[in-house]
């Protein structure tokens, strides 16, 4: 099974979870974390799917899927 088979649905699940957390509790951290992470995974899955269609690898998608998350300190 290919990576985009998991990253796109999981990204959609994270986006939905971020919206649910925001609407039920008003948590902007849930909105930012869920939607931000979900959109990055959807982007990675899309890039991987397009590269698969061309018979190539997408190293940017690989980095987005497995890279260390960036921590922002305030």
From TrEMBL:
Which protein are we looking at?
Transmembrane proteins 14C
Q: Quote a single Gene Ontology cellular component term.
A: chloroplast inner membrane
Molecular function as annotated in GO: fatty acid transmembrane transporter activity
The family line of this record is: Belongs to the TMEM14 family.
Q: Which organism is it from?
A: Actinidia rufa
Q: Taking the first listed entry, what is the main subcellular location of this protein, grouped into a coarse class?
A: membrane
- Enumerate the InterPro entries for this protein: TMEM14, TMEM14_sf
Checking Gene3D superfamilies in the record gives: Transmembrane protein 14-like
Q: Where are the transmembrane segments?
A: 7-24, 30-49
* Cellular compartment(s): Membrane
Extract the Pfam families matched here.
Answer: Tmemb_14 (PF03647)
Q: Please, which domain of life does this record's source organism belong to?
A: Eukaryota
């Amino acid at each position: 099974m290919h990576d985009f088979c998991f990253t796109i649905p999981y990204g959609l699940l994270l986006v939905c979870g971020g919206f649910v957390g925001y609407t039920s509790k008003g948590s902007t951290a849930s909105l930012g974390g869920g939607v931000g992470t979900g959109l990055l995974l959807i982007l990675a899955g899309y890039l991987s799917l397009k590269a698969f269609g061309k018979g190539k690898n997408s190293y940017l998608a690989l980095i987005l899927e497995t890279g260390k998350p960036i921590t922002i300190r305030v």
